[in-house]
Amino acid sequence: MKWIVFWIAISVYPAPCPIPEIITNEYGITSGGIYSTNLMACYKTDRKNMQKEFDSLEAALVFVEKGKKEYPERVLMGDSCEGWEIKELKPIGGTK
By residue range, what is the domain housing residue 52? Predict the structure, then answer.
């Protein structure tokens, strides 16, 4: 029998900060200092639904325990995994 593990992979990585609105004075001159805020750290977060098949429940459990240790849930500003679930894969239509 086969087993399948489901989880959500969360990756956090640096990304360009949004450009602030350009402010000009009454003469149309733009201050050179307004873009200094772009040097601040901005981050993007991606969440992906993941799954992986295993030939035994034991192998699936080892994989999940290793993942929980290496990527704990809700890590502030870091990569993590959450929502671990293990299910038995059953053949569609049964066996003959």
Answer: 2-89
In a domain, 30, yes or no: yes
pTM: 0.71
Alpha-carbon dihedral of residues 26, 27, 33, 34, nearest 10 degrees?
40
**What tokens were used for 33?**
């200092």
HEC sequence for 31-85:
CHHHHHHHHCCCEEEEEEEEEEEECCHHHHHHHHHHHHHHCCCCCCCCCEEEEEE
| Dist. CA 92–CA 19, nearest whole Å | 52
Looking at the structure of the chain, the number of domains it has is 1
Whether the CB-CB separation of 79 and 12 falls below 8 Å is answered with yes
Does residue 96 lie in a domain region? no
- Given a contact cutoff of 8 angstroms between Cβ atoms, the answer to whether 79 and 71 are in contact is yes
| pLDDT recorded at residue 38 | 53
